[in-house]
Amino acid sequence: MSFGDPNNPYGPPQGGQQPNYGYPQQQPQQGQPGYGYPQAPPVQQPYGAAPTTMPGTVNTARVLLWIMVGFQVIGTALFGISATAIDQAKDDAAFEELADYPTGVLWGFMVLALVWGIWAAFLAAKFNSGGNGLRVTALVFGILTAILALYPFTIAGIVHLVFGILIAVFVGNSKGAAWFKRPRY
């Protein structure tokens, strides 16, 4: 017998044929159907599971709070400069009308803007580690900001109105609740 005989069962396979017995000569490729059970779908988080990363809406609320801190710093500086300028104008006769404005109100607005900015900075800094109490506080902050922005209704008031509404909505929705109520180990 020679190996050239096509009917020889012990010879090499002819024409690129694979033997039909024994183990497969190549391992099946990953992702291709092969032997055994079918592949399972990818594992997903079950409904209501705690998120491991901050949702986009909650992160947006945090960014809006930091932007609001910048606005509060600018507002604090403007109120302080205005109050100082009016106090200085009381001595000058050319600015008699300006000197009639009460500077105590401007100093009060400056303190309010400073406190509001500190509150916003505190909330924004605690978004990673805060619990449901921080969520409620941020919700109250957003609502109060929107309400207080209605009174002056200037360009800065419109911006604060929009930011306050967005912060309240983003923190108050289900993704915000899931983020702030997540377990901390």
The class by helix and strand makeup works out as mainly alpha
The number of distinct β-strands equals: 0
Q: Which descriptor suits the 3D outline? A: elongated
Low-confidence parts: none
Proportion in β-strands: under 5%
Keywords: Membrane, Transmembrane, Transmembrane helix
Question: How are the SSEs placed, and which strands pair?
Answer:
Elements: H1 56-89, H2 96-99, H3 103-125, H4 132-150, H5 155-172, H6 174-180
What report would you give on this structure?
With 185 residues, the chain is mainly alpha-helical. The chain has a domain of 125 residues. Helices cover 57% and strands 0% of the residues. The protein is elongated. The mean pLDDT is 80.
Q: What key phrases describe this protein's structure?
A:
185 residues, mainly alpha, transmembrane helix
